[in-house]
Fold:
Amino acid sequence: MRVLIIGGDGYLGWPTAMHFSNRGDAVCVVDSFDKRRWELEEGVEPLLAIPTLQNRVREWKRLTGRDIDLRVGDICNQRFIYKVLETFQPDAIVHYGEQPSAPYSMHSRETAVYTQVNNVVGTLNLLFAMRRHVPKAHLVKLGTMGEYGTPNIAIEEGWITIEHEGRKDTVLYPKKPGSFYHLSKVHDSANIEFACRIWGVAATDLNQGVVYGIRTPETEMAPVLRTSFHYDHIFGTVLNRFLVQAAIGEPLTVYGKGGQTRGFLDIRDTIQCVTLACDNPAKSGEFRVLNQFTEQFSVNDLAGKVVAAARRASIDVTVRNLPNPRVELESHFYEAKHSKLLDLGLKPHLLTDESIDAMFESVRRHVEKVDRQIIQPTIKWAQ
Amino acid sequence: MRVLIIGGDGYLGWPTAMHFSNRGDAVCVVDSFDKRRWELEEGVEPLLAIPTLQNRVREWKRLTGRDIDLRVGDICNQRFIYKVLETFQPDAIVHYGEQPSAPYSMHSRETAVYTQVNNVVGTLNLLFAMRRHVPKAHLVKLGTMGEYGTPNIAIEEGWITIEHEGRKDTVLYPKKPGSFYHLSKVHDSANIEFACRIWGVAATDLNQGVVYGIRTPETEMAPVLRTSFHYDHIFGTVLNRFLVQAAIGEPLTVYGKGGQTRGFLDIRDTIQCVTLACDNPAKSGEFRVLNQFTEQFSVNDLAGKVVAAARRASIDVTVRNLPNPRVELESHFYEAKHSKLLDLGLKPHLLTDESIDAMFESVRRHVEKVDRQIIQPTIKWAQ
Structure:
């Protein structure tokens, strides 16, 4: 299979690229390195520095003998993405190439507008480029479980059958996203569904939960092949933040009441899911939505797990509730369906004591690199 | 009341501005004149030339003694709209300022991307500007019934209560729009709902049907105060096209089977509805959605009405079915609720034989101005 990875420099893009390359697929990665610029704008860095993508592609070749085709450019430039599709002719396009941070999108008018324009225009350009050059390719788009918000009914996988006043229809699941970033993903999903409907595009929208972990078989091959671990208030996720706070002996900061519940998954399962989607493509004209996570946890659940992991390492950690910088429900019903990827063959790696201990141990090994100034949230949803 | 009309040069913006001005409200109009540029790009014109907005504002002052405050600029330039809100301090903001044509948005990648960026960024800038300078103002945003598409269940007004697996929630009505333009309005609605939720913005989203007619009490005061009548394939609507085709003795062109059913309303009712929304504002934090139309017709219904009107004027007209340039259902269930504006006091002007005869008569009076080259559709949704 010929697989194009958009956002190949990223936390998930790079391990995904190595995975497909390792199993013998022809892999091309695209990146604009905008993510590294957003980090500079906000003054945040991953725990361990990430070598340039060019360097990692060279090391990958040296270690495995396999080529990854690297194209540097921005999909918001339509000429660039048209050219990539024309010349690489992918069978599957895995699209991670978006601004991925809710707090970044809430920083200012500029970042809100930028996030929506960047994500929506990039995806529109990709759809038009597919129509022109690879109309039979399969688009695998990374969405987010955050598109759904926290409704008081079960979250279905993208579509829901509604009975209303004696009639019935299957419609797109109603969304209620929680940031301008999450809204950009909702806009993308709506645009992609339309392209499937009118042009016969085959698309899978992977509404992904919060990913944790940095180890995959390929990242473990050599330190230079590592992927990024973000614990900061812009690009970091809650579990990473808790692990770092426990490692430096500071209280775990829970935003608000901590009843916020979300879907989570191990990075290895992200790669499994993306691979399953590529290997079992949507049909022409189908807008397939898969909810991509393996377990649900509340923020308080995660705090409890990290406190327990720290205790197993003989470290006493406390929990502190901060005023919530976000506007969101802090105690709510949450039941999200996620059977379709299991039906395709997903074998989940769950968040066991062993896996959390391994993550904690790896953070502790680099504890001297932690920047304490980038952990506390400074961006507020309303003020 | 201080009323800001964004898109004050447009088909609906100008009559709305005169209406509020006439009843004694303080009115400011904003326009970028982009719409006139889009007409030039596509080589289309309204049936009768429309004087400059500056000229109309002067004539309005001369005829009524009333001032309309005109600000020329683009709301995609945030400095412009921030300044307008800061200095004019509106109580109500009527936002018509968007690219309004589905065919224009489907012309090319460029126009699709342009339409979404123009509409989404303009509205985001407006929301941020409101938050900064007039957080208590009421946003009255023109949406479209086309955001809903044609579901197989009744269309509610913006929100729907769903029972699902024994639980219940009231959620945003699921949308399935039919063009990149309609999608831009869906994106806007989602962004506005979020602004209401997190910032307490008061907003009314008027999901409007297809508007017909060009006469309001104020446009009738003098020819110079007229508003535009578009019958072309880009900015024209189906009823206008049929009236023009009947007047020039050509067959009425029905796209596909003609069972496409939509909501319609008289321009006087648009102005009534917008006024009712302004006079009965949404509450802080409320995202209120009103379906703004008075009657449902299929394309075949309208063709029949125009054939009958022509016959009353002793003109024989035939109907011709063209291959549908759009991708849409041509025969479908359609039942859209529209009681909330009636509850607020709307007194509909229905599409009677008399009203259609009057429109037909006014088109016939200017039949020599018809450009036959701009009627047939050239933009296809899929090809």
Notes: Chain A touches chain B through 48 residues (CB under 8 Å). The radius of gyration of chain A is 20 Å. The first strand of chain A starts at residue 2 and ends at 6. Chain A has a mean pLDDT of 98.
